[in-house]
Amino acid sequence: MRFTFFNDFLALVFPQTCAVCRSSLFDFEELVCRSCQVQLPTTTYHQRPNNNDLAIKIMGLTQVGRVMAFLRYTKKGVSQQLLHQLKYRNQPEMGVLLGKMYGEELVRSGYKDIWDGIFAIPLHPAKQKRRGYNQSMMFAEGLSDALGSPVHDSLVRTKFTSTQTNKSRMERIANVENVFSLVSAADVRDKKLLLVDDVMTTGATLAVAANVLLAAGAAQVDLAVIAAGK
């Protein structure tokens, strides 16, 4: 009772606000109010996972199955706002929430029990230590909660690379060549896997990582990101 009273007191003095519109959240709302949730710039890529601009973008780079994104990325838009809070404002719980939301949408669309495991694009250990968490892994954890597929962390990044921002498609591919390795092939061999990241722009990072999983014997690798960039 004392603990509940203290929480109620904190909520009164420091009310939690929506990450988008800044209005006060109700007790049943988490990070983003229901009104803003229904207005998120979502895509329908999961309804046409083999025939969308992301699938076309990575053609020739890798032989993956489905290619999907939860949100459309718009500069200075809601998706950028949420990603900025996830990556730079120390809000790992935002990634989990977005993963749960997208996972629930995928379940409603018949994607339950599709994947044997979920992998996230790893950060270099030095970068993850600096940030405190891997934003893509947070997205994977949220997806796992909704989909019921386990998350694996056996895909690792062995080389520190410069940012992909402002690089051309070929420069991005060269920048991430030979940077990923697999610690345990048992998590991959003959499995149908979902590989996730925060944003897909050219698809170079996801394609290189997917090829590592496929080379280790994955039966199929599908891709999903929080937001589809341009």
From TrEMBL:
It holds the Pfam family Pribosyltran. InterPro entries: ComF/GntX_DNA_util-trans, PRTase-like, PRTase_dom. Residues 136-228 form the Phosphoribosyltransferase domain. Belongs to the ComF/GntX family. This is ComF family protein.
